[in-house]
Amino acid sequence: MTSPTLSADPAPPIPLRGRSSRRLRLPILLFFITLLTTTAVGMRYMYNFNLNRPPFSSDADVLPFGWAFAHLSSFASGLPFSLTLIGILLAHEFGHYLACRSFGVDATLPYLLPAPSLSGSFGAVIRLRSRVPSRAALIVIGATGPVAGFLVAVCTVLIGISLSRYAPHPVMHDVQAPLLLSGLQALLRPGQPIALLLPHPVLIASWMGILITALNLIPAGQLDGGHIVYGISPTAHRISHWSVVAGLVLLGIFAWAGWILWALILLTPAMRHPKVPKSADERRWHLLLVPACLLVLLLSATYAPFKGYSLLEMLREIPHHF
Question: pTM of the predicted model, to two decimals?
Answer without folding.
Answer: 0.91
